[in-house]
Structures are given as structure tokens and as C-alpha cells.
Amino acid sequence: MTDAVLYQQDGHIVTLTLNRPETRNPISEDETIEALLAACQRINQDANVRVVILTGAGTAFSSGGNVKDMRDKRGMFAGDALQVRKGYRQGIQRIPLAVYELEVPVIAAVNGAAVGAGCDLAMMCDMRIAARSAFFAESFVKVGIIAGDGGAWLLPRIIGMSRASEMAFTGEAVDAMTALAWGMVSEVVEDAELLTAAQKLAARIAVNPPDALRMTKRLLREGQHTRLSSLLELSAAMQAILHQTQDHAEAVDALLSKRQPQFQGQ
């Protein structure tokens, strides 16, 4: 069992921790990629999970690609152009597909530097809380490459095209308070309070019916690229399913009885 990504579950909340602090948690290495993919698959198959927190060990959230491997043409950066293309497609590009398609809400607890693919990893999540010391950099141009992991798709959807272009064209970092002003993160807290803040948000989410949470996330995702009429059709189908669940009946009864509901995922 790899320790590249730590998997910790507390009730309905899973915390994933990138665990390569000595190299600032890069996500371009095979071991980390496979560990993230395995964690995402495990979460999607576990109906008991309702929310995920993603963070990094040490002082960085993620440094993205391993620059030394780029220099030495190792790992996914090895070989000719066709081999590098294959390395991206079968390597780091599997992360955005897996993280973005997690069925449950995901909170990025950004504890430090989120650079390059590390910045994009935070953007793959549904919500972001930043430590005051955190910063974000879409810094690919600084090493003479482009965002190979979906950043050009993710970042403009979160902060708009003009600001995403500024970050991508300059490669310069923005601090946590700028990220807050730009809507990149929803909250900035003191470093020591980061995980507590993320856990509090996760707990507020986890009290809700799990099937409704998963379907709500799916609708938000689909709403980014589908027509209104298509989304309404999907909403009607999901609504019909949820109206038949025990959790819906429990929610209505608890609301009318003025008590706290207890949801079972049924």
C-alpha cells in the first residue's frame, strides 16, 4: 500500500493528503498518480462517503510537476514527442478526469504553494479554503510549457477569462487574499486553523442526504456545458428518483416535526 496519498476517513468525511512533503507534493510521479486514482475510485464506490477534503503534507499544497524530472527527462517527461504525449495522456491527465468526476463534493484545503499542476489540482475541486500563507501560480510559461492537465479549461471557469489569462500569460503567483477577491477561494484562514475550517465546512455538507448531494454535484457539473432544456430534463429524472427515497421522507418529516433528520442513504 503506497503512502504517496494518505486516506483517512472520519464518519462520512474522507481526508486525502498528498504525502511527499520533501519534494513539495508533486503530482507528476506514477506512484502519486496511481494513489490519487485509487482513492477516487474507492470514494466513488463507498456510499458512506459524503464529502472529501484534499490537502498537502508539509508547507506546500502541491508543486505540480517535478521540475527535476523535466530537466532529466525522466518519468512522464522521458522520450520523444510521441512518448511525452503518451506520458501525459496515460499519466497526469488521468488526475483531472478522476478528481473532477468524484461524485461527492470536494474541498481543497490549500495549505501553501499551489503551483502549476498543483494550482490546477485545487481548481479541480468544488470548493477551496486557503491558509493565509497559501499562494497560487499558473506558472507553466515560466518553465516554457503549457498547462497539460486541463488548467486552460478549469481556471477561466472559476475566475473568468481575463484573470485566468493574466495568471497564465505572466506565470506570476497570486496570494491568498487576492485569490479570495477573485473568487478562486471562498475563505482565507490562519494557517493553524486551515484543517479545522475545512472540517467544519465538510461537516455542514455531510449532514445532508448522500444521494441528493451526489445528484446536486452532477447537476452543477452538467450545468457548465449543457443546454438549459437538457439540464431540466436531467433534473426531472433525478428529482423523480429522489422523491421516492426514504431520506426525502425523513427530511420532510424532520422539517415538519422541527427535529434533526437522520439520513441513511436510502
Report on the structure:
The chain has 266 residues and is of the alpha/beta class. It is 47% helix and 16% strand. The protein has helices at 30-45, 67-72, 81-90, 94-100, 117-124, 151-159, 161-170, 176-181, 194-206, 210-222, 228-242, 246-257; strands at 5-10, 13-18, 51-56, 60-62, 106-110, 113-115, 127-131, 135-137, 173-175, 187-189. It has a six-stranded mixed β-sheet, sandwiched between helices. A four-stranded mixed β-sheet has the order 4-6-8-9. Strand 1 (5-10) and strand 2 form a beta hairpin. Helix 5 (117-124) packs across helix 6 and helix 10 runs antiparallel to helix 11 (228-242). The chain is globular and about 65 Å long. The model has no long low-confidence stretch (mean pLDDT 94).
- Per DSSP, the total helix count is 12
Order of helices and strands: EEHEEHHHEEHEEHHEHEHHHH
Alpha-beta content class: alpha/beta
- Number of beta strands: 10
How much is the radius of gyration in Å? 19 Å
Low-confidence stretches: none
Helical percentage: 40-55%
Q: How far is it from the N-terminal to the C-terminal residue, by CA?
A: 32 Å
